[in-house]
């Protein structure tokens, strides 16, 4: 009796635990997935050489917002041609709501000053179609959040920061979604509203021409929303260039919440080569390390490292063998022509040794990993050139030493300000120039001496290895 009752109680408890587990593991229904009235939104489209890099940057930004525990949904407005695996990763791994849209046709493509990389930036106007939300903070992917900015959801119908004294920046702005406004914007595109640059920046500054005369936004202490348009304090869009002048932030107004990087496309903070040219790149990569990590790039970097180490090991054991390419003396004119060809080949091989590794490294790796792999790869290829053309090692490796010195000078942390840093780099380059020129002359002289001794084209039966040249140890 007691045993039967105990078994029934045990069975009931097991069923209860199973039911609780099934409820907790079940995916929330679509209707309850959104829990917030506000959203941080960004956009993603295809068609540029940097699509993958902006995809990674968007993921890092969204994950950093999640770590700040913002009280808002995270939304990416993705064009229909964004790869399905990217959209799935954003939804499943990053907790982002992906809204798929068709690209808006840009009517300003034939403007004289139009830049083709801005062709699809008008997709940003889709932010006004997100009418499920009361307020949306629209973002570019090159923003670095230092702290939560949820108070921006108290702002009015349109709010933006004036980085330029006269033109507001569209890398971050607050809007109140409205289908009427969205339809009106599409109508303005159809009729060809004036647009100074043919991109979202020019269109929005034309659409909201009087924002400069609006009052500064200060969030009400009671958490209520304000109506109308407002200028946002500069602390919500701190231009990275303000930092580089003093090598520190000196912005007295605003909350100092967001850093933006409106620099040249190839100098965005996620590119490994942008540091130490732009020191704040390390701050972006620190945020990536904490959020996304570098698991996608590490296998490629490991393979490259092993390849370079293998090249260096083989080069150390190999002897020059170019002389085996020819076994009889050519006529004088042919030899002179071939000597010139080999000189050009040697010079271009040196250039290739310092450029090829640069393009093999994954673009978004951490700068310390990127530069270390670059130096390893360039040293490996330089050793091939040294042994193949019997060149003096120090002369060929002089640029390598100069690059190491440049990185050290630029990364030196105790400069008083950016001007002193720039002057120091200039002085270092000025001092290095004579050494680079001397190494170039040394290489040319070594090649000429090598050809005069006919090391590359000996008579049949002559030694193919002059005694004064040996393999590099």
UniProtKB/TrEMBL annotation:
Transmembrane segments: 292-314, 335-356, 368-390, 397-415, 421-440
Leader sequence segment: 1-26
Coiled coil: none
The keyword Transmembrane appears for this protein: yes
InterPro entries in UniProt: GNT1/Glycosyltrans_8, Nucleotide-diphossugar_trans
Entry keyword set: Manganese, Membrane, Signal, Transmembrane, Transmembrane helix
Protein name according to UniProt: Glucuronosyltransferase PGSIP8
